[in-house]
Design goal:
With about 50 residues, the protein is mainly α. It has two helices and no strands.
């Protein structure tokens, strides 16, 4: 029988790793013009903080 506490810990770790990756890929995967998309400084700032 699988320990439910260990199972929930594993799911929490997977979710914690996948959430920022999903946010970043969905941000850069949009096919709409973004504000300040031509500015390298703003793009790098957004990339570093997200």
């Amino acid at each position: 029988m699988v320990n439910q506490h260990a199972w929930h810990n594993l799911l929490t770790v997977i979710s914690t790793i996948m959430l920022p990756l999903t946010v970043i890929t969905s941000f850069f995967g949009m096919n709409v013009p973004l504000p300040y998309q031509d500015s390298l400084i703003v793009t790098m700032t957004i990339s570093l903080f997200f």
